[in-house]
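Researcher: Structure prediction, please.
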Amino acid sequence: MQDYLMEHANRPLAELIRLGVAQGPEKSGDDQLVRRCSRNAEDILFLMGGGTGGRNSAIIDTTGYRIRTRKVEIPN
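Model: Predicted structure follows.
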């Protein structure tokens, strides 16, 4: 799952600026600068807790971006 996120959880800086996730005016070349979810796959941690509540996940953001959460479906 870590490798999957490293491969798929990335966006060009220009897109992040347009979405309001990154600050600044968009500059030439920002569409070529890819921002990834993490520097290293080993830095992505997965935790699962028990209980009768619903399943959910959270990303603790330490990079200055806004925190976003999304439900992760686990195939059977």
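Model: The first strand starts at residue 10 and ends at 12.
Researcher: Thanks, that helps.
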